[in-house]
Amino acid sequence: MWKYAAGSVVVGTALYGLIKYFAGGVCRCSARLDGQVIVITGANSGIGKALALELAKRGATLVLACRDTNKGLDAKTYILRQLKNENIKVFVKHLDLCSISSIRKFSVNLIHEFSEIYALVNNAAVFYHPQHLTEDEYEVTFQTNYLGHFILTHHLQTLLKNSVHGRIVNVASEAHRIVNVYDLNAVTKCQVEFRDHFIAYGVSKLALILFTRELSKRLRNTNIIVNAVNPGNVETSIFRNFPALCNPWLYALQWPIRLIIIKNPQQGAQTLLHALLTTNRSTGQYYSDCKLALPSPIAANDKIASEYYQLTLEILADKFNTESDC
Ligand SMILES: NC(=O)c1ccc[n+]([C@@H]2O[C@H](COP(=O)([O-])OP(=O)(O)OC[C@H]3O[C@@H](n4cnc5c(N)ncnc54)[C@H](OP(=O)(O)O)[C@@H]3O)[C@@H](O)[C@H]2O)c1
After folding, report:
1. What is the pLDDT of residues 295-317, one digit of tens each?
2. Which of 38, 94, 161, 219 could form an SS bridge with 119, CB 3.0 to 4.6 Å?
3. Which of 44, 62, 67 to mutate to test the pocket of ligand 1 (most atoms within 8 A of CB)?
4. How many angstroms is it from 64 CA to the middle of ligand 1?
5. For residues 18 and 263, what is the distance between their CA atoms, to the nearest angstrom?
6. How many C-beta atoms surround the C-beta of residue 78 within 10 A?
7. pLDDT of res. 326
8. What is the CATH number of the domain that holds 298?
């Protein structure tokens, strides 16, 4: 009998150790953010919603930027119920990153409503989305994950500059590592030629890290720091179109393993939280598991980052201009 008991303890301890290991880093910063305005794109679900709750616990005023405001209102209700604190302010605003006109309207509304914002979290994304062109004629994954955030960030820079310490957090992914320079340029320059979904996603995330790097240089003499973050593998609805996970039978087969090796959204939000709260004001960096990490050599290349910023402006052409639109 004691052999079974000892065996159960060993297996239990090993499982617990594995779950803790895969849960990743935990943000230990105890700073409060009372009244500081933080804008989170795609805040109605997954990592964005979990982050919103963590920030609300620290007193932040939240702007949940969602393409479906009903889902945003549900998230707001959830956050307020969890906190039972009537002093927390949560605003739900419509933002569709697939529409430059929606991004403009959202930004103008924010500029009228707030005099400053402490942080912008560029979190929204799609993965394995059926490929099509947006109303602005860019590929949907590219515009949602990268171009939309590129434009939004420029529109909100004045509000960020008005804050004592502004922060921009770009939510990236380890998927950026699968992309080579050829794919990066090919996908960016030719929006109508559809590609492998994983490459399309990887390009959008590499683009965000390169943007982080170049923007940090352009904002060198300001109060704003900008960093990219890898949340790790997290159980969220981002996999809704991913064949291996949207099939309920395949999902059920993987479920016991996923329970051990995949983070829950609260765990996934830790590195984002860290980037928003840490007293380390380094900028242009890549964080993973609440620590500074090295991105791929392409993502860390200043020359590629600078050229890619120019290429982005070129493909935006007359649709967006950093001089006149901000
Ligand atoms: N989960 C992971 O394993 C993982 C790994 C690495 C990186 N990430 C990154 O983590 C971030 C959060 O993803 P998640 O896992 O939390 O996924 P999620 O639950 O699917 O959240 C994505 C959010 O983006 C929103 N969104 C999609 N298209 C949009 C658009 N056109 N305009 C505005 N919002 C839009 C979604 O809105 P709807 O609810 O209306 O669709 C949703 O709120 C993403 O940047 C993702 O790439 C996730």
Report:
1. 999 999 999 999 999 999 999 99
2. 38
3. 67
4. 13
5. 12
6. 15
7. 66
8. 3.40.50.720
The answer to whether position 253 is within a domain reads yes
In a domain, 167, yes or no: yes
pLDDT of 324: 67
- Give a yes or no: residue 326 inside a domain: no
Q: Is 201 considered catalytic here?
A: yes
> For residue 321, what are the contacts with CB-CB under 8 A and spacing of at least 6?
313
The tally of domains found in the chain comes to 1
The answer to whether residue 149 is domain-embedded is yes
Q: Of these residues, 118, 138, 201, 287, which one is catalytic?
A: 201
User: Residue type at 157?
Assistant: Q
How many other C-beta atoms can be found within 10 angstroms of the C-beta atom of residue 297? Answer: 9
Domain containing residue 254: 2-319
**323, pLDDT greater than 80:** no
> What's the 140 CA to ligand 1 centre distance in angstroms?
13
